[in-house]
Write a structure and sequence with these properties.
Growth Hormone, Chain: A; mainly alpha; 544 residues; 2 domains; 80% helix; 23 helices; 0% strand
């Protein structure tokens, strides 16, 4: 009878991983909506007349409510009233933000260009309120199901699914749009609705696991108190890991919003695939085929750490790695022509950055579970940021560009794989919602500054480029062309005319090197402080 009481839903590995997939679908959708505009930036400029500074404002204002503490409010709600109420409130808000953005982009609420932009910004602001709380919510859900098991790897895979959303959103949105940006906005909004439906289905299991955990509990769980906030802000290790979070993500997320155009303007990549080149076609759809290629890369990224982990014998583990490696090489060879074109295409190549994190983050997460060294891993990842942004800003060599992107992908894998499970070791579980919310809030301060800052600096150092593109657009407007026709004509000029104005990204990206330097100093301090406070981040995180 005692053994029956001990066995609960999360003790079943298949159930844990089913829950992970179910809740991660919402992460996939929100990350798609967060980053898909990056592949559409030139189209937004040519079709809707959105300047770099306005683009930066629209992206940065996604974080504005969270800059002023909305995530903290959501974290308190999560810790005080639980996952289900929080999910219904903030999931609905994220969906509403996506719908408002789509209505604005499609001129349903207004046909005035300035009003359209303002509606799209309002949609992003509303979406941003739901976005960050949703990420905290999903992270808290994973801790609930995986603490004591494969926590670091589960978090890494969840992050990988989110990055898959970023990658496909960046790479595929131009194909979905087909010179009509509102189509891509509508599709992205629809994905949030689908992801939220799956999370609502998960809540059925949440009710069940809560009953089981309550029946299994040996002592009364201490309720949330507002004094818990004081406990967080006086914990030096928590403050350092929160500061490292803002420095690290400020060097990565803003870069991703501008990466496709950087690769096109600085390193000569293309925006459009060559005529007649479709890649993999499924049911007559190249977009679906290309999406499945990204999913294939993701599955291999997950397979490398998971398959060997479920085999006890060392020989079997080695064989699993070898077989997976052979299949992966065969996969790359089968589609080598498509991948060869992708690495010369701005949106596709930029999408390979989050895809790199998908491949490496589960591996590093598994390493942290088994070997530990979380603080050292964060230090290494922070150091790699510096090299990556130096290679992408100062130098104009395409091989250094690829090396910089690869290095940034490694850094983007190392830090999250170690950072998020480390928080669960530093902070008591009953404060985790508030802790993650506080970290996301501080992170949003940096993102707000750099999303807007890069756009403003880009326009400041390229005034002639902005003016020339606006004049070209105004010339087509004077001819009576509609926004979609204008976008098509500008794209033809961009491809055919070598003198078409381009943006110089050197200074905007060089700004991000400073974030890497700060991250290194913070990682060193974190390693010393957590050792002194006895949090044992260098020891294995363990898994049953």
């Amino acid at each position: 009878m005692t053994e029956e009481i001990k066995r609960i839903l999360k003790d079943s590995a298949p159930m844990r991983w089913l829950i992970l997939v179910m809740v991660s679908l919402l992460m996939f959708a929100t990350y798609w909506f967060q980053d898909f505009y990056s592949g559409l930036k030139p189209l937004l400029e040519s079709q809707l007349g959105i300047t770099p500074s306005q683009y930066g404002s629209m992206i940065s204002l996604t974080t504005i409510a969270n800059v002023f503490g909305m995530i903290i409010i959501g974290g308190v709600i999560l810790d005080k009233w639980g996952i289900r109420l929080t999910a219904m409130i903030f999931g609905t808000v994220a969906v509403l933000g996506g719908i408002i953005s789509a209505l604005g982009a499609n001129d349903i609420l207004s046909t005035d260009p300035n009003t359209r932009l303002n509606i799209m910004i309002i949609g992003r602001v509303v979406f941003g309120v739901g976005l960050e709380i949703t990420c905290v919510l999903i992270t808290r859900t994973i801790v609930k199901w995986f603490k004591g098991y494969e926590l670091a790897m589960a978090m890494a895979i969840n992050m990988g699914i989110g990055r898959l959303g970023s990658a496909i959103g960046t790479a595929i949105s131009p194909e979905i749009a087909k010179n009509n940006a509102p189509t891509a906005v509508t599709f992205a909004a629809g994905l949030i609705c689908v992801g939220f439906i799956f999370y609502i289905i998960y809540l059925i299991f949440d009710v069940k696991i809560d009953k089981q955990l309550k029946a299994q509990a040996t002592e009364e769980e201490e309720p949330f108190r507002f004094d818990d906030l004081k406990q967080l802000v006086t914990n030096k290790s928590f403050l350092l890991i929160a500061a490292l979070c803002v420095a690290f993500y400020s060097a990565v997320f803003p870069f991703m919003q501008y990466a496709p155009e950087l690769l096109v303007n600085k390193f000569g990549f293309s925006y459009q695939l060559p005529e007649g080149v479709t890649g993999l076609t499924i049911f007559g759809s190249a977009t679906l085929g290309n999406t499945l290629l990204f999913v294939g890369l993701f599955l291999f990224g997950v397979a490398f750490p998971i398959l060997p982990a479920n085999i006890k014998e060392k020989a079997g583990k080695r064989m699993a790695v070898i077989i997976t490696g052979v299949l992966f090489v065969a996969f790359l060879y089968a589609f080598k022509d498509t991948f060869a074109i992708w690495i010369k295409n701005g949106p596709k190549a930029a999408a390979l950055l989050p895809m790199g994190t998908i491949f490496f983050t589960p591996i590093f997460g598994r390493m942290v579970d088994k070997k530990g060294k979380a603080a050292s891993v964060m230090l290494l990842g922070a150091g790699l940021l510096i090299f990556a942004h130096v290679a992408l800003s100062i130098f104009n060599n395409v091989y250094l560009c690829y090396l910089g992107l690869f290095t940034l992908g490694i850094a983007f894998s190392l830090v999250p794989a170690a950072m998020w499970p480390s928080v669960a070791r530093i902070v008591p579980e009953r404060r985790l919602g508030t802790a993650y919310a506080a970290m996301f809030t501080i992170q949003n301060w940096g993102l707000f500054l750099f999303f807007k800052g890069i756009g403003s600096v880009l326009q400041w150092v390229n005034p002639e480029t902005v003016e020339k593109i606006q004049k070209i657009r105004e010339g087509f407007e004077a001819q009576g062309l509609n926004p979609t026709q204008i976008a098509e004509e500008i794209e033809k000029l961009r491809v055919a005319d070598p003198s078409f104005p381009i943006y110089n990204y050197t200074i905007p990206i060089l700004m991000l090197v400073g974030c890497g330097v700060i991250a290194v100093f913070l990682a060193v301090a974190l390693k010393k402080t957590t050792t002194k406070q006895g949090y044992k981040l260098e020891e294995p995180f363990g898994g049953k």
